[in-house]
Amino acid sequence: MKRRTVLTAGAGASAALALGGTAAPASAHSRNTTALLHRWFRDTYSSIEAMHTDFGLATDKVDVSGDKPKRSVQTSPTNIGCGIWSTVAAAGLGVISDRTMRKRLAGTVSAVEKLKTAHGFWLNWYDADTGAVLTEWPETGDPVRPFLSSVDNAWLVTGLRIAAEADPALRPRIKKLLSEADWSFFYTPFDEDDPAKNPGQIHGGYWTDDDTFTGHWYGALNTEPRMASYLGIADGSLPGEHYWHTFRTLVPENEQEQKPEGEYVTVDGVRVWRGHYTHRGRKLIPSWGGSMFEALMVPLFVPEGEWSPDSWGLTHKRYIRSHIEHGLDEEKYGYWGFSPANIPSGGYSEYGVDAIGMTVDGYHSKGVVTPHASFLAMPFAPAESVSNLLKIDRDFGAYHDGLGFRDSVDVREGTVSDFMLALDQGMVAAALAQVLKPGLLQRPFRTGGFSRNVQPLLAKEDFGIA
Asked: In the chain, where are the structural domains located?
């Protein structure tokens, strides 16, 4: 952890001057911004390279407090997926050659082929250097139960699909890897006689040591597990009606952050509560906790806003506006963007805007801004996102030259995280790819089962917020 008490000028300082000036022509602003974003991507990818092991996997995080980045032992399916799509993005943006990309992807696929799986899916924690399943947490020695996470597996499958698109030579091997990843394993079909136990949703996960599913399902639509839903609907292992069994909000009778407005409608034969929240005069669809990555990680890959401009497209923009106003107007931090991340003083916590999350015990901002949240907003609010990140760097020295933004900043205490997480750096890389080369990582999610099965659902979506 480091503490800053003096304003500093770090990464992009000259670009900040150009962006903030009034005399430079628009084309100069554009060139300076593009150059800055490319620099941010190159450095971010360097941090992901620093997480990469000889075995072929990206680790969970790196500690950048010393002279050299220190990798963690553990990795997860999500971390591996982040490493894959970041490598494809790096080639697409000219940071590495196509030959280097193919070599790195082949190495990661070879490593993934060696990992122990269960029911066609990957366990939640492995040793990144050997591929062994972790039974003890490296940092504490606490036992680790073997677990299959539906959402973490979704991000690895996302990465593998991107790799197969980027390198056709890998497609047969990846097809074999994914052949047993049947999303119906996590699915509980809907039963109108007992919807509490049979909600038509996917379980959070499965404990392999005693063959039991978690006691909860992923019910909130505007959360990152919808990527698993999209993948299953796309490949046919989940029925399309599953999409309509997820909650835009909880029904009015259920305890939640605010009483929603809306109405019951029937779509594809499914009775749906078409509910929404109103926050600061704007109608939107809440996430579970109010964090940025719940709402905005998925559209880095699936073009929800394009396929559903008056519903998904609107709620994404209004969600970002809520984060901006929370940081600048409600809390008066001077900065915005809140999402689960490393705690600046150590550990991990959820951060968000409580008012736009369903759960009464939502995620609170607590004065901690997370740079990856601004990057997630960048495809929808580029100027505001870049300005916010430049201020975070200028005022706290949050940018680590050569490696990108550190994970989080407590703007009240002036403390900056000593860590970079693969998940958060992976979101930064994907967001920058989408801004600099739109659609680069979306190709596998615009064709095939996504265009046949997912796009028609999103085209029918009507949140009632337009």
From this structure: 1-51+251-441
